[in-house]
Recover the amino acids of this structure.
């Protein structure tokens, strides 16, 4: 297969980037998208050019590192999949493919398709945990958890923190990510004692990082590789309202 | 051999750890604040250790090469985590988990360590549950367990097919909490490129800032390496692309012995290689073997026809199929352990009966299960796995059998550590997959997560005090100390060397070639002849690498290709050591199979001559490493032949 | 983060959007119901009666102030959010295929809202300014001797251009409501698997019925369906 690529190249966050055209041939339909980029990079290196920098690690859809905006979609056209789970057979021979990085003020550029997503870590550091020191825990079966709640918590916990929600959101909002963690812990009794502090802290940090505001468009849910639901955002809103209005 | 002191406490097996904890030296809280600890790697072992040490009051600096600690490859573990909780009331106990682990490891692990592991496994489940890890539950609201990896009890806790992810996110949350509190300084996108030792003690690291390329010097009263396994020495493995041996290898070169480097686990159920472009192998959960039947055609001709596409699996009559696992191991059948299933697949493919174009693949067939249980039950049972397989291969396993082949998955070998998890360099510790300690020659399913978290949450935080108690008078050493300068210079020189070669071949070229050598000669079946040949090939490859590699870009910028080059350079050196170790170990045990050492077609262990840990001392890249042996003493269990027939 | 977060945080801002939005929706119900009185086709007598009540009742007049405040808050907050959201992505995508993951109107609330606002300026000039400020004495009284707001309507909607603008305004309102109605519930956290469907259906029904009722008024008058 042959493809015409338009890839975002940017030396660093200090200089402006632009789309650069590449033509790539003899691509096997069973290649993953990242393997196609590997082949392109191999070619660039042999030609003495700078290869395309991109984030990737596990290549099995769980680490959340890969992050490409392909043909106008976060992680490309495949539903509920990360970039590394996208295969070239999804495209047609001769297609033109746009490849851009996640774009958001809160995700500053590093190089080419690589951006800095440490904002997510700073949000987690403000409450995305249960404050239980090692060794303090009681026996795991001392607290029963309703199975349905545990399942919902797991649905939310499936988030891989890739940032596709931010990338796809026309407002660059991070609410799906933040709400997934708040929901997970709000649905479990273990998360109960800190829920007020958690909601206030994480949302405060989210705002400080410069993410946009949710207007319930739903692009995040549609593009999330782990199918995290908008209901989590509603739950986060409830947690927040409770924290600001009800709690003393 | 005398200098290898494993520091196993005296006393009954069951009391050793308790006794140790009661007698280890303590550091008082005021002094903990003055002590700095470096943690390299933030997977299960690293994140849990960093968080726990910070909770205790130490000043911690953590490093990872990924953009966030949450990305470490622990996240990819699917199946579950073992713990001797006996919630199922099916007769499980600490002793049974201990025994299963030793036996599974083919009697090549240290008794005291494994018993401790089994013991603290219970605390891990408590801790993780309290952190909000959403383990699977029963309708009564209590935790669910499943049986995993052919054990006779149900002791595996799980969170759907994402257990590793959930445990890691729990530890990551605990770590981020400490970062938020200011007790941990996190350095992501940093790679350790040199260990700094002063007067024989680990005192810090040189880390490359992967964004700016700057070489940073960091002091620590102690250094923890939690940097995972080295399966990527094979290029193709189930590891993440970035998984590497660099930190452990640098430590090895600074005096840390490397234990049992040849022990690698080859997982039987992975998706076969399809092309040279392939970057990674994907594991299909072991649980598939519960209902899937493994087979190849009885004749080479049928296999040939399938490879060419003139016949399909469905065209092969029942009588013409060879369900070789069921034939060879009637009592365990398709559920025999990983190493055995893997070797059996290799055998039939070597006979020319493989069923994928490359020749290296066998069928995993669900048609019987579908006929027996109905398609819906099978679908429900393997929910996410079938679509995942279909996404990758474009074939529906409900209609046509899966194609699988073994792939490198885990490395049991690693830096040699004593009972306190300290390496042969004082003040340098090694945790998780990066150390050699608990799995012997073969790891059981759902035990990797257990070991990583045991080391990080419950072992190291106790043992490190025993060392640091004597370090409280050591003031932080300024990083302009000659040892730091020298280490930084050597890292710089090496980097500049790499950049200046400007050869013709890409880093991946070399990595793939190394992988092929390792897979061919140091993979599932190893011979003295092959290993000897491989060593020579690796040496040649090393010379070629250092004279013909091409690394693009600059040193002082974000340059993933350069990072890769440094890692591959270390893999090449490690590869040679693995081959040396494999050659030395003239027996078959667990994941290590020497063709010369078998009986009736089955692996044959040699307890008389090889019941030891091979700990290798580095003597120079060109020089032969020196072997040190730690005798494995079995005081509580009797060595037996593993039989799954 | 203090309790002031309720007003300053991102969620506080959208909470305000949702609340004012629902408030304006409640106004739409009242407004549409009263205006529908023109279809009694009694020369505007019933309609004028209620219009008079709305214009003279002290409570209603007080609420009118609240209504304006609500509207202003909704507009200002909306525009502020719009500005912040633009700033959150300084470099735009060269190629963005948003149509596959979301509806155009959900992404265009600010534009639709602005169109509605422009329409409102005209609408207020047409009616509110006349009834509340300049007076409508010159339109005489109806059959029962009441102030004749109905006559004002008849006068205004003689112009086909005005009618077209009103109908266009109703289309904007339709799309704005189609997203805004259910969005408000989501924002306020009123989201529950058992009732989501009902809210969605109600939202669609409301978004269709109310704008149609509004649009039919000028059309009915222009085409002489009501006299």
């Amino acid at each position: 297969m042959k493809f015409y690529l338009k890839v975002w190249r940017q030396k660093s966050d200090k200089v402006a980037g632009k789309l650069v055209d590449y033509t790539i041939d003899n691509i096997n339909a069973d290649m993953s998208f990242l393997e196609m980029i590997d082949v392109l990079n191999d070619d660039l290196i042999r030609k003495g050019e700078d290869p395309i920098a991109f984030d990737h690690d596990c290549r099995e859809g769980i680490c959340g590192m890969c992050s490409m905006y392909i043909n106008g979609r976060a992680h490309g056209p495949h539903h509920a999949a990360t970039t590394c789970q996208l295969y070239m057979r999804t495209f047609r021979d001769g297609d033109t493919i746009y490849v851009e990085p996640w774009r958001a003020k809160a995700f500053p550029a590093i190089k080419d398709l690589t951006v800095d997503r440490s904002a997510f870590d700073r949000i987690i550091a403000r409450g995305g945990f249960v404050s239980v020191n090692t060794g303090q825990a009681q026996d795991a079966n001392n607290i029963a958890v309703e199975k349905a709640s545990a399942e919902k918590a797991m649905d939310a916990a499936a988030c891989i923190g890739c940032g596709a929600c931010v990338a796809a959101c026309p407002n660059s909002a991070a609410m799906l990510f933040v709400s997934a963690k708040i929901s997970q812990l709000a649905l479990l009794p273990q998360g109960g004692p800190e829920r007020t502090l958690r909601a206030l802290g994480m949302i405060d940090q989210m705002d400080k990082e410069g993410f946009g505001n949710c207007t319930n468009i739903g692009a995040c849910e549609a593009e999330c590789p782990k199918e995290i639901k908008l209901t989590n955002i509603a739950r986060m809103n409830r947690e927040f309202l409770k924290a600001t209005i009800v709690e003393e | 051999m005398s200098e290898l002191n494993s520091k196993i406490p005296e006393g009954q097996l069951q009391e050793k750890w308790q006794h140790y904890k009661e007698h280890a030296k303590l550091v008082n809280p005021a002094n903990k604040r003055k002590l700095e600890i470096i943690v390299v790697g933030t997977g299960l072992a690293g994140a849990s250790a960093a968080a726990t040490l910070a909770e205790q009051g130490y000043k911690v600096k953590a490093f990872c090469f990924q953009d966030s600690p949450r990305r470490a490859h622990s996240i990819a573990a699917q199946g579950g985590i073992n713990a001797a909780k006996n919630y199922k009331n099916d007769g499980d106990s600490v002793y049974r988990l201990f025994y299963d682990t030793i036996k599974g490891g083919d009697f090549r692990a240290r008794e005291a360590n494994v018993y401790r592991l089994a013991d603290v496994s219970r605390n891990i489940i408590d801790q993780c549950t309290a952190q909000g890890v959403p383990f699977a539950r029963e309708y009564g609201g209590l935790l669910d367990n499943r049986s995993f990896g052919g054990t006779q009890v149900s002791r595996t806790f799980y969170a759907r097919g994402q257990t590793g992810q959930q445990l890691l996110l729990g530890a990551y949350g605990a770590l981020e909490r400490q970062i938020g509190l200011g007790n941990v300084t996190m350095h992501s996108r940093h790679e350790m490129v040199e260990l700094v030792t002063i007067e024989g003690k680990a005192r810090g690291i040189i880390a490359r800032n992967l964004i700016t390329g700057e070489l940073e010097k960091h002091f620590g009263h102690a250094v923890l390496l939690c940097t995972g396994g080295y399966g990527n020495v094979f290029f193709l493995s189930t590891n993440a692309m970035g998984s590497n041996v660099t930190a452990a290898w640098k430590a090895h070169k600074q005096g840390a012995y490397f234990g049992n480097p040849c022990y690698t686990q080859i997982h039987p159920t992975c998706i076969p290689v399809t092309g040279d472009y392939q970057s990674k192998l994907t594991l299909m959960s072991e649980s598939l073997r519960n209902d899937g039947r493994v087979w190849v055609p009885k004749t080479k001709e049928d296999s040939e026809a399938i490879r060419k596409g003139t016949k399909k699996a469905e065209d092969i009559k029942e009588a013409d199929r060879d369900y070789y696992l069921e034939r060879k191991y009637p009592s365990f059948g398709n559920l025999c352990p990983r190493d055995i299933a893997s070797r059996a697949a290799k055998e039939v493919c070597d006979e020319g009966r493989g069923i994928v174009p490359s020749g290296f693949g066998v069928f995993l067939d669900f048609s019987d299960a579908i006929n027996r249980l109905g398609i819906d039950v099978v679908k429900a049972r393997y929910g996410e796995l079938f679509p995942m397989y279909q996404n990758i291969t474009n074939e529906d396993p409900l209609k046509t059998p899966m194609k699988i082949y073994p792939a490198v998955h885990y490395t049991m070998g690693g830096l040699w550590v004593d009972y306190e998890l300290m390496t042969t360099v004082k003040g340098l510790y090694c945790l998780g997959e990066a150390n050699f300690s608990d799995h012997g020659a073969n790891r059981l399913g759902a035990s990797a997560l257990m070991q990583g978290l045991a080391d990080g949450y419950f072992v190291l935080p106790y043992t490190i005090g025993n060392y640091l108690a004597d370090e409280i008078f050591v003031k932080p050493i300024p990083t302009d100390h000659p040892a730091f300068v020298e280490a930084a210079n050597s890292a710089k020189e090496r980097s500049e060397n790499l950049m200046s070669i400007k050869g013709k071949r890409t880093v991946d070229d070399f990595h793939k070639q190394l992988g092929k050598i390792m897979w061919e000669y140091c993979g599932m079946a190893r011979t003295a002849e092959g290993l000897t040949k491989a060593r020579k090939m690796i040496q040649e490859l090393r010379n070629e690498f250092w004279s013909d590699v091409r690394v693009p870009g600059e040193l002082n910028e974000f340059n993933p290709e350069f990072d890769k080059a440094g890692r591959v350079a270390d893999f090449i050196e490690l590869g040679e050591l693995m081959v040396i170790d494999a050659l030395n170990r003239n027996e078959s045990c667990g994941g290590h199979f020497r063709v010369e050492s078998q009986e009736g077609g089955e692996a044959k262990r040699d307890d008389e001559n090889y019941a030891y840990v091979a700990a290798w001392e580095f003597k120079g890249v060109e020089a032969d490493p020196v072997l040190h042996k730690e005798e494995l003493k079995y005081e509580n269990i009797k060595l037996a032949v593993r039989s799954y027939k | 983060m203090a309790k002031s977060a309720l007003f300053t945080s991102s969620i506080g801002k959208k909470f305000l959007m949702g609340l004012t939005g629902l408030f304006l929706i409640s106004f739409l119900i009242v407004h549409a119901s009263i205006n529908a009185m023109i279809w009694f086709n009694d020369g505007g007598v019933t309609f004028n009666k209620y219009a008079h009540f709305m214009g003279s009742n002290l409570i209603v007049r007080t609420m009118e102030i609240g209504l304006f405040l609500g509207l202003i808050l909704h507009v200002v907050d909306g525009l502020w959010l719009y500005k912040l959201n633009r700033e959150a992505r300084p470099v735009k995508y060269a190629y963005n295929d948003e149509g596959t993951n979301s509806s155009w109107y959900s992404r265009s609330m600010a534009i639709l809202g602005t169109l509605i606002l422009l329409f409102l300026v005209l609408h207020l000039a047409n009616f509110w300014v006349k009834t509340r400020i300049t007076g409508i004495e010159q339109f005489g009284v109806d059959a029962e001797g009441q102030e004749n707001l109905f006559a004002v309507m008849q006068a205004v909607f003689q112009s086909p251009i005005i009618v077209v603008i009103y109908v266009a305004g109703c289309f904007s309102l339709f799309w704005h409501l189609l997203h805004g109605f259910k969005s408000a519930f989501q924002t306020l956290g009123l989201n529950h698997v058992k009732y989501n469907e009902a809210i969605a259906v109600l939202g669609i029904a409301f978004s269709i019925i109310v704008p149609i009722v509004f649009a039919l008024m000028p059309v009915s008058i222009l085409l002489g369906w009501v006299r």
Observations:
- Residues 587 and 597 of chain B are 5 Å apart (CA to CA).
- Chain B touches chain A through 82 residues (CB under 8 Å).
- Residues 268-407 of chain B form a domain with the Flavocytochrome C3; Chain A, domain 1 fold (CATH 3.90.700.10).
- The first helix of chain B runs from residue 16 to 23.
